[in-house]
């Protein structure tokens, strides 16, 4: 299996874009170089190099920029089990004392498989979304319960225990790097940190083409639509917001064909429906970027 994985990744025609993630090629390659080389190359080479596996990475940056997408794709590229995704606030919402139990449970499957198969075990990925929510309460700073404190401690002790287990990878995600407990970021824990920022113009072009792929295949985009123009006009938009723009444009186009109130009686001429430039312009008016816009830009 290790051999197969290597071939997939050194395929010269391979593009991260084809995995449905736009504008993050550099981030992807950097994470692979820093965190996963040792998981992809033959064990004999890894042994010669003497580099330990990276157990955890942290993806940080504004909301809707593709952190979850990226974490999932990393999992599939590494041939991992379907990742377990847990949400910081969710863990804390459970009863006091139950939170630590929840953390321990997350590691159970991986530990059991390792016991049975050792180094032949598949890779288990645990994704902590909104990791900051757990850390925020460490030391009882915000609500005095200290729940976050013991949850972080439990997580730390689990991560340190992973030492003997090569089959677990933890991916933390946050919009607030400054809130993350430093103890979690040390070597041997979430040691590779990668910022996933808002996409630049090329990235936005890629994201637009990804989210309109099916429409383009079905010839639903009118000829006057210029994705380069739209990429230039969507400064400060996140990937999620660009996706929102595409959906909004589609709804404007649809509305031209089927006006509210006619739904029951008229069979719409969907074959002639095209999403036009004007639909995208209306969509840009409707869906605004929420992040990275300075006060004077908002006017
Ligand atoms: P959050 O911090 O809110 O959890 P996130 O960074 O994890 O956000 P995702 O959940 O990965 O963001 O993105 C939400 C959706 O936005 C994706 O399912 C996808 O449709 C779209 N999207 C975001 N970023 C990208 C991208 N770089 N390429 C393609 N689509 C994207």
Topology:
Blueprint: H1 2-10, H2 25-40, H3 43-49, E1 56-60, H4 67-77, E2 84-87, H5 88-93, H6 98-117, E3 124-129, H7 132-136, H8 147-161, E4 168-174, E5 190-195, H9 201-211, H10 213-217, H11 227-233, H12 239-257, H13 277-286, H14 295-298
Parallel strand pairs: 1-4, 1-5, 2-3, 3-4
Helix pairs in contact: 6-8, 9-11, 9-12, 12-13
Adenosine-5'-triphosphate (ATP) is lined by residues 21-24, 63-69, 129, 175, 207, 210, 239-240, 243.
Subcellular location: Cytoplasm
Organism: Syncephalis pseudoplumigaleata
GO biological process, one term: intra-Golgi vesicle-mediated transport
Keywords:
alpha/beta; binds adenosine-5'-triphosphate; Vesicular-fusion protein SEC18; 299 residues; elongated
Task: Describe this protein's structure.
The protein is α/β, with parallel strands linked by helices and 299 residues long. The chain is 48% helix and 9% strand. It has 14 helices and 5 strands. The chain has helices spanning 2-10, 25-40, 43-49, 67-77, 88-93, 98-117, 132-136, 147-161, 201-211, 213-217, 227-233, 239-257, 277-286, 295-298; strands at 56-60, 84-87, 124-129, 168-174, 190-195. It is elongated and about 60 Å long. Bound molecules: adenosine-5'-triphosphate. Adenosine-5'-triphosphate (ATP) binds next to helix 4, helix 9 and helix 12. Adenosine-5'-triphosphate (ATP) is lined by residues 21-24, 63-69, 129, 175, 207, 210, 239-240, 243.
Give the gist of this structure:
This protein has 299 residues and is of the alpha/beta class.
